[in-house]
Amino acid sequence: MDTSLLLAVTFFCGLAASFIRLPPLVGFLAAGFILNAIGFEMNDTIAGLADLGVTLLLFTVGLKLDVRVLLRREVWGSAGLHMGLSVLVFSLVLVALKGWGFSTIDGLDTQAIWVLAFALSFSSTVFAIKLLEEKSELNALYGRIAVGILIMQDIFAVVFLAFSTGKVPSLWALSLLALIPLRPLLFHLLNRVGHGELQLLFGFFLTFVVGTSWFEAVGLKGDLGALCIGIMLAGHPAASGMAKSLFSFKELFLIAFFLSIGLSHLPDLEAIIVAAILLVILFIKALLFLAVLMRNRLRSRTALLGTISLSNYSEFGLIVVAVAATNQWIDGSWLATIAIALSFSFVFVAPLHANADRIYQSISPTLRRFQRSRLLSEDQAVDFGEHQVIVFGMGRIGSGAYNQLEQHYPGQVLGIDTDTDKVNAHRQAGRSVIVADATDSDFWAKLSPSSNIKLVLLAMPSHHGNEYALSQLRRNDLNTKIAAIAQYSDDADSLTRLGADAVFNLYNEAGSGFAQHVYQELVQEQATILQAHNNSSNDV
Q1: Residues 185, 148: Cα–Cα separation, whole Å
Q2: Is residue 161's pLDDT more than 80?
Q3: Mean pLDDT score, 214-220
Q4: 358 and 415 fall within a common domain
Q5: pTM of structure
Q6: Contact 302, 381 (CB under 8 A)
Q7: Which of 43, 78, 244, 371 could disulfide-pair with 300, CB 3.0 to 4.6 Å?
Q8: How far apart are CA 353 and CA 312, in angstroms?
Q9: Together in a domain, 26 and 59
Q10: What single string gives the DSSP state of each residue in 321-350?
Q11: Which of 305, 338, 368 lies at the terminal end of a domain, its last residue?
């Protein structure tokens, strides 16, 4: 009965959130508090599934992460500078709030204030990556920088936890260096397991045995191990396939994570009021992120979208407060306060992230006044030049389309993708491809009705991206034909309503293309051979 109730409440809360255009995870958060209020208790099963979800999330993030991102100044510099400023500002705010009549704040000493400020400076890795995945913008510039900052924050948290708990890594931690020569072996195994259930099982093995168990055995955090193993495999061609095979499990387990927040802590009235105050203070945290990112030569739109992704409180903040409470540095009641502030921040930021581009367009004139004159090369505006055919999304489908179109429009085809490494590989192969983001409103603002574009192919893996690009093309009133791909019939209908001239369902077209290929290669070839044989017989 308890399981049935949990599933029912969770499903209907997630469904209600989607009906009002919020991410389902907001409904899962609400479900946790509702279940807690009606007497449902946190148990080891939910806690275990939540841990599995977070660990799998970090592993799959590692599979997609280019470690060079962490070495960029706009990542490590922004992460370090923002954390320092946030701790200072939050400390001053907490000091200013003392004497307002809230017992939880009045009882804070200097050490407790610093610990709380440190906990509040973190942003949620799970929440931010979940939102970026839903919009398929992990590979967008702002998405890559946001993920890099989140990982740097996680590293700061791991260092804090190691020192605060007194558990320094053992000498056996040096055994982790063996992962370097083991990398070719892991690559070989990944080649051998194929693409079925064995690949899925290998993913779990790498996450929870090679990563989590090994790192925990030498005194390091298991989640960090899962992330590191994922990063090690990121360069393998099968890494993206493994991430896709783990996707459903990760999504299911993460539901338990969001439920666990509400199930673990049911706050009293004072905790809710203090959490609401912390939500207001979150605005300061957002402004600091915006200032730091723009200082690092990011365009105003990139900085704003990155800021919205990072403007929340973190589950790591709960962990830091829990450790501080165990060490009696802070009162345990703060756990409930931080939990509700965390939930408030998720509910507040989710709709902002969904409407981030509309928000940017409304305030862009003001933001651009503070934009640096010299921007990062990959964040500068681009245009289509004199190209007549544009292919958005240079994956396998886009690349195949590019090659075919180049035969009909030699030198007039331009490919566009957000992945820098993919773009460089295409350029080395002799294709004309640039780095750009089709969901960037500034990118489209440069187009004019006099553009020479005759044909546009929307071959991006994200339906959201294809929809947005299509709407922008139609809004600019370009006299061009537009074709798009879709995986599902309802997505195809949506693209047609938005004005696509042709929509190709990948699965239907794959079957049609396969049949056409078979006919050309086998049936026509056999007919040609038979005709040649008949002609030969007639000659005789």
Answers
A1: 27
A2: no
A3: 81
A4: no
A5: 0.72
A6: no
A7: 371
A8: 11
A9: no
A10: HHHHHHTTSS-TTHHHHHHHHHHHHHHHHH
A11: 368
